[in-house]
Amino acid sequence: MATMQLHEVNTHGSHIYNNPRHGLRITGFVVLVVALAAAPLVAGEYQLHALIVSMTFLLPALGLNLILGYAGMLSFAQMAFFGIGAYSSALTAMRWGTPFWLNLIIGGLAAGVVAVPLGIPALRLRRYSFVMCTLGFAVIAQTVAKNLVSVTRGDLGLSQVPRPRIALWSGGFEVTGITSYYYLALTLAVLAVVAFLALVSSAAGRYMIAIREDETLAASVGTPTWHYRMIAFALSAVFAGVGGSFYVHYFTVISPTVFDPFYANTVLVIVLGGGVGTVGGVVLGSFLFVAASEALRIAPDLRMIAYGLLLIVIVFACPEGLLPLFMRKLDGLKGRTHVA
Amino acid sequence: MSPDTLAALSIRGIAKRFGSIVAVAGISVDIKLGEICGLTGPNGSGKSTLFDCCTGLQKPSTGRVYAQGLDITGWDMHRIVREARVIRSFQKAVVFRALSVEENLVLCGQMIAFAGMASTFGVGPASRHRVRRLREQAGHLLELVGLSHMRHATAGQISFGQQKLLQFASMLMPEPRVILLDEPMAGVNPILIDRMMENINRANREQGITFVVVEHNLDAMKALCHRLLVLSRGELIADGAPDAVVRDPAVVEAYLAG
Ligand SMILES: Nc1ncnc2c1ncn2[C@@H]1O[C@H](COP(=O)(O)OP(=O)(O)O)[C@@H](O)[C@H]1O
Ligand SMILES: [Mg+2]
Fold first, then answer.
1. Nearby residues of B95 by Cβ (< 8 Å), 6 or more positions away
2. How high is the ipTM of this complex?
3. I want to staple A276 with a disulfide (CB 3.0 to 4.6 A). Which of A59, A69, B15, B116 is the partner?
4. Residue B121 is part of which domain span?
């Protein structure tokens, strides 16, 4: 039997079950959503743009968190699924003028459907081989996007992708202003987080955690481990595909650069830096890392270096990610108030 | 040799080789429904491997395994638990260390409460009700094994003996017919050993669960088991009443030699 747990993955994913901070987390989530909803009152266009990008990256990050933090497998295919979602959604919208909600579904489904035939052989491999398989897949996806010129227009990419059209089917109105985009992104992010929380606190989520913790032990209590790893992998692709769909209708262009390792690394950094196996950590990670990389655009030459340095600092300072660090700080404060 | 269709487990010519190592050398034995059967033998005599072959962790090199006449040879582990209701414990992996004591039990009961795969994705009132029922059942079992006060503790942080009791309670959650215990008392203090034996006896008496227990502590085995099997170098060298088996010269020699 393939053993695929990443033992170095930390274990606070289970906090959803045994969690004295449950109330705190819900409060934190509500406060964050309210603050984000109020952001357009104070934030300028550029800040709103950075927030939109953050919330777009949150989706593939949640997907990676599912497969890595809950099912215990490292995948580099997230941005490939993001790209597949973006391309399929853009192409259907350009050809048939499909409305926004349908594009999101198409983007998500396209990614999920591609994940299944990839997962069938890849999930039977041991963990390092699985990682290599997902890397290879990302390269193949980029090659296809570059060379299937009749469909993807190759390196030129697709441009003038329709903006999101909010309608049941035809008609409706088109989203154009940055504030409208922002609220659309916020709605999507909130829905994604709620869906993610529902999933990981369901019986299926408990099975995924069991697989991450100990695959053999999980199977011994009746978990069809292979099926749930497959489901986690396909759902992680769906999250990424939906994110890709939103991305393409926001930027209205897409090219094979979306498959560059830089983006795949960003998603990895969001999840590992924020705190794998946690939801709050991934939300935090999306805002911090995307905002940081956007802010660093002012000095384009230094951007990649600064980003790399930031990564190294985080890995050394808090290997479990930022969220656990914040939580410990919080606990430390509490301890002191008790003593005082 | 045809299987005994009434037997809880009917093991027919099971052998397992790892390269040139013969871990199990062709064993045939019937475990009767409702018995507590001890399995002992020196380290490396093939006890765990025999369990592995009966529960799908290893595919036997040759031979077949039947559970009440159902041929389960080569089935995946999760299917053997679900469909044949044969469950086993491990020597090393004892509990899900990151989950709470209660969540360990809920997880183990899921295969009954959420039998279909689609139902495991439910988050509505029906699912919450099922989980509540599992928690109640868990609470009841924790009381029986004496871990009620640890309900919300993280399983990895309770003592090893308590983990073994939790492991035992976990195995009762999916309502098994047969439980294979791999060294449930090794490394456990004497008080918890007594409690473990009590629990095995109770589950056997009240729920009619068949047990096969691997254990080196022969005094415990004499007190607990209806029957004792002894393995040596992958072969079954004795099978009978515990008192008689421990006096068997072949068994004494195997232990001295092993
Ligand atoms: N996965 C494996 N690969 C190779 N050899 C193994 C494996 N599992 C067990 N063995 C060998 O098979 C023999 C029986 O081991 P085991 O069943 O663990 O014995 P016991 O449980 O009675 O102590 C030992 O010699 C052991 O080294
Ligand atoms: Mg053993």
1. A217, B104, B155, B156, B163, B166, B167, B170
2. 0.93
3. A69
4. 95-175
